[in-house]
Amino acid sequence: MYTILICDDDRDIVAALKIYLTAEGYRTLEAYNGREALDIISRETVHLALLDIMMPGLDGLAATAALREKNNIPVILLTAKSEDTDKVLGLSIGADDYVTKPFNPMEVIARVRSQLRRYTMLGGMSGIEKKPSVISIDGVEIDDDAKTVTLDGEPVNLTPIEYSILKLLMENAGKVFSSTRIYELVWKDPAWGAENTVAVHIRHIREKLEINPAEPRYLKVVWGQGYKFEKGGKR
Amino acid sequence: MKLTHSLGVKIAAVFLFALLTGMAFFGTSLTIAMLNDGFYPERAEAGPRLQNECVWNSDAAEAKIFPLRYSIPLLTGIEWLCCAALFLFLLCAAGHREGREEAALNTQDKIPLDLYLLAAGFAATFLYWWLANPLVSDMTVRRIEQLILLSAALTVPALIVLAFCMTLATRIKTGTLWRNTVIYRVLRLGWRALCWMGRGIRTLCGNMSLIWQAILIYSAYALVMLLLCRETYYSPMATLFWMGVNMTVLLAVCFVTLQLSRLREGARRLAEGDLSYHVPTEHMFFELKRHGENLNSIGAGMTRAVEERIKSERLKTELITNVSHDIKTPLTSILNYVDLLKKEPAASETASEYIAVLDRQARQLKKLTEDVLEASKAATGNIKVELGRTDAVELLGQCLAEYMERFQTANLTAVMQTPGEPAFILADGRLLWRVFDNLLGNIAKYAQPGTRVYAGVTREGKEVVIALKNISRDALNISEEELMERFVRGDSARTSEGSGLGLSIARSLTELQGGHFGISIDCDLFKAELRFAAVEET
After folding, report:
1. ipTM score here?
2. What pLDDT is attached to residue A28?
3. Per the CATH hierarchy, to which homologous superfamily does domain A3-125 belong?
4. Considering only CB atoms, which chain B residues are within 8 Å of A81?
């Protein structure tokens, strides 16, 4: 059983999250400011921390920075700010993920689960030699021999076309492909007005792969240019 | 067919005129001769006769003429009348041509009038002189043959006069009487030269500094006064005194002008928006100094006003940002606990109905908070814009794909019309997605189910136009401008979901990227149009 630390100055939010996480079978600890959170982490075994950014005393960013000095547990930031700069700052300071308020509890749970899986799996799998046919990026693993895709260890069901698109993007992770290019490479046909087809397929992959398809972590939309598989991004 | 328009009639008239004029001249000269010969009053059959008067070749001829002494003048009179009538007719006909209603100029009408008059006068005089001179010089001999020749010689100038009068008539009809003269042209040229000189002088003065203008004008004035004042011609003392006075005045004028030019410079800088400029008032006097100080305080006042405005704008944005952040935290609790309540098994049917309302309204509040924040940031330009080469066709396809499911739920069919090749624009794809997110969201909400939604990219000259068209579910009895205002929605009852900020956000975000956003409403057809400058493929 994993222990999750919930830290927010708003007690109602902490209580609500506690209900949801307990229902999912996690043990929870509560803190109401950054200092308390650091205290608890130093005393108890905590597997994941949910930290609010705006808190009196020590805020979430400072707490994350302090935490990272000796601990590598996953940290998910809760923030009322939705600006991209705040997200970038949070991630660069050492957080693994973030959720913007007002959040959907289901999304929080999904992110917690994903982070925990990756945290535990990365530790377990670090020594194992990988097959050359396997490409693994940030928890997404594609095995070209078995034609399977797993997300943080859990299998993902993709259609053959979806699989080919994902494979193309993962083999060239970080590179942007336009819809026409993807069509030409996957369908092996000249693309005549096929922009929509590719976009719809990608949308379907995102729905299967991402916790929140509107804010994808892996399969990113580069608006007006194409699509890419994000490499090295924590989200 | 009017007679005046026919060329044949005119030529005939001219011939007839020439003939009649000749005859009339002849008749007239004959009458004069008869008068001189004393045919009237009735003279005796064999009365004495002047010896040298021998118009008639013989007595027999004279005898033949004599009975006609009354009918010849009468005939002559009629001929003259006919001539006059023909003359008038030709004047009326002048300038008219077959198949044209208006009078038009022909070749002779294009010769400058004064030149024409000169030439015509000279020609008439010369021709008459050349033809009639040999006859007139021999005054002693007067024969009837000579009278005929004389009449013929007179007819030539008469024809020239006719031609002149006709061209005059044509010119009057077409209104080119004055314009087509050498005098008019020369005068106009002169006037233009004068205007040009005036402009030149004015430009020269405009580019000269105020102080030089003052010195020049005052020196000119002093010189004129010196020339007018005759006293100074005689007395060197007076001249010296006069010069001294004028030099003093000139110095004063220079001083005042210097101050004025400083004030002018200050006012110019203020007008250009340089509010920090300070007019140097240290060496100014009286009213000028006061005026300079006023200018300075205008600058200070305006600076203060602008600063306050900027500050209030910033405070407003900050307030909205803070408030929406502060609203988000309690909203999180509300949403979460409503969600938990939904899962409680003990709720009655009414209770779950109420919870559904709470849930819907809380979500609406969430959307509203996000929209207000975004609208405020977009309107104040408080958003980082990263412009890059973006393919409008690709982007539209991506956006439509995102909305595919929502459109299917709303029973809408999206139709994409693209040029079949990339259309590159300079824009921030992320912001542009938010523009289309708002527009497509509106369409999903407000479009009539079962209709098609057209999304098109076209190139219009150097612009790329992205247009979204759909049929509105409700009648849009509202103007385009009103609809783009903040918090205005197509349905005035505000029963549907939505903040009324979507179009306002879309417009602000488009304009932030240097694009142009417009909507148009044609009955139920709603059309949103984005225009961006096209970027050539590299």
Report:
1. 0.79
2. 92
3. Response regulator (3.40.50.2300)
4. 325
